[in-house]
Design goal:
The chain is 0% helix and 46% strand. With 126 residues, it is mainly β.
């Protein structure tokens, strides 16, 4: 999958040691353009961090995989980036979304999306 947008936030670099050696993870948030911009948080692992143009305000195209896992009867989803590259083709005006068939980014008029009970957010294992 691919998604284009502008990096609006870089989260703190995380490092650690595991049974297979050292690891590092960089999470970042991009915001898509259009009438209904979306913010998506991606994680990038290992050497790919140093090979990617990660700075706030940079327009990027992110290639990623979506993976879900179960923990104590609840499901959690990660967007794991495997390639991040500069994208000079990010539309700068909301009207340019009409020319971009991104497929399913927007909800039909009158519908909203909720993620569930707010108390569930306090029960995360991470």
């Amino acid at each position: 999958m691919e998604l284009s947008g502008k990096i609006v936030q870089l989260l703190a670099l995380q490092k650690g040691d595991g049974k297979n050696g050292g690891w590092k993870k960089q999470e970042f948030v991009i915001e898509t353009s259009g009438n209904y911009p979306k913010k998506v948080c991606f994680s990038l692992w290992g050497d790919k961090i140093d090979q990617s143009p990660l700075s706030e305000g940079t327009a990027v195209k992110v290639s990623f995989d979506v993976e879900s896992r179960e923990y104590n009867g609840k499901w959690y989803t990660d967007a794991k980036a495997w390639k991040v590259e500069a994208d000079n083709g990010v539309p700068s005006s909301p009207s340019s979304k009409n020319n971009n068939n991104s497929g399913g980014d927007d909800f039909p008029s009158g519908q909203t999306f909720t993620s569930g009970n707010a108390n569930e957010l306090n029960d995360l294992p991470f």
